[in-house]
TrEMBL record, chain A:
Cell compartments where the protein resides: Periplasm
Binding residues annotated for Cu cation, in chain numbering: 60, 96, 99, 105
Entry keywords, A to Z: Copper, Electron transport, Metal-binding, Periplasm, Signal, Transport
Named cofactor requirement(s): Cu cation
Protein name per its UniProtKB record: Cupredoxin family copper-binding protein
Top-level taxon in the UniProt lineage: Bacteria
One MF annotation (Gene Ontology) recorded for this entry: copper ion binding
Main location: periplasm
Comment on bound cofactor: Binds 1 copper ion per subunit.
Example of a GO cellular component annotation carried by this entry: periplasmic space
Domain EfeO-type cupredoxin-like: 14-108
Keyword Protein transport: no
TrEMBL record, chain B:
Protein name per Swiss-Prot or TrEMBL: Metallophosphoesterase
UniProt-recorded Gene Ontology molecular function terms: hydrolase activity
Residue span, Calcineurin-like phosphoesterase domain: 54-247
InterPro entries: Calcineurin-like_PHP, Metallo-depent_PP-like, STPP_CPPED1
Top-level taxon of the source organism: Bacteria
One Pfam family here: Metallophos
Amino acid sequence: MQRRALLLSALVPVAALSLPRAARAADTEVTIDNFTFSPALVTVSAGTRLIWTNRDDIPHMVVSALRPPAFKSKVLDTDDAFAMVFDTPGTYSYFCGLHPHMQGMVVVT
Amino acid sequence: MDDTTRTTNGTDRRGLLTCMLWAGTGVIWTVAGGIPRSGLLGSAQAATPSGGFSFAQISDSHIGFARDPNTDTPATLAAAVAQVKAMAPALILHTGDVSHLSRPAEFDTAEKILGASGIETHYVPGEHDMLEDGGTPFIERFQKRHTPGQPGGAFYSFDQQGIHFVGLNNVTDLKAGGLGNLGEAQLAWLERDLKQRSDSTPIVVFAHIPLWTVYADWGWGTDDGARALALLKRFGSVTVLNGHIHQVMQKVEGNVAFHTARSTAFPQPAPGTAPGPGPMKVEAGRLRSVLGVASIAYVPGRSDLAIVDSPLGA
């Protein structure tokens, strides 16, 4: 519980710091629609900001599949968005914390 | 009434595997000698049998949801509560998703409407209720007063009228790609809890996500649900009440009757009939026919409970 709260607060500065970066690397968009991350697999270069937007009329979350999760959004109601910069090359699996059958992956090169 | 459902009892049920589907409001359960029967609220069959007692199931109120097809979820919950109250059940089980986003104002509204029934109400959480602070606000508000001497967290048991009621939490610590989750600690507690009961004790288990796999593609099942069911196998009468899928489904397997209740907020599509399990859009005039409650009646000496699912309106 507490660990999650810490992770969340740790994410806030990341998102804030990412704003100036957006000018350098184009953002990549992932849409959540019909209980699906679309595209479910995105490949981006390091430093790219990913933005997930919920277009469903049911809330969703973006949660790292690592245990404990490496990143976690707050709950996203309809039209809410979550942004995060991926600086380190690697493969990042994630899922919806509310509907864990919804899964996606970010490959950072 | 067309959408009244009845489980068969005794040997007819053994080996029988049925899966039926409706849309509705709430369920009232009558317990007769151990096996609950459900019926739609408003049905004459939901009346408490002599010598028995009845309880009601309300589910998926989603207070805070205010979109098509239901912009007034407090009103439909209030209608469900009024319907339940008219049947004077001994208690109400709420099988989760009381709120839409775990917000304090949503819990306030739900607590006020459900509290107006004046009927003892027992809750288990849905995933929508546990979004803040690990679920503590929900547990503190809706479960703590029911769980003196229990292990804490969102699961507990109690006894009433000879029935052993077990409330489980299968909506936290969910894993990527998985379904609902009970977890080791809860399963160990369940084993200890059931050990003290005789085989002839009627058991009613209630939890949010179905404990049996209704449709894995949409996450409608519980990964370790089979382990809980294995612990329940020796009992002569087990009734499993779930919500989450916003429609009535029923299955009987051996001595275990599975039942899911309608939502009081919005319907969801039958498995695989839509691209996703999002709210099903229905015309305003038809909304209450796909919302509902359930009633369950118990009659001592009978081996099954009568379950009647009732829609909120025609």
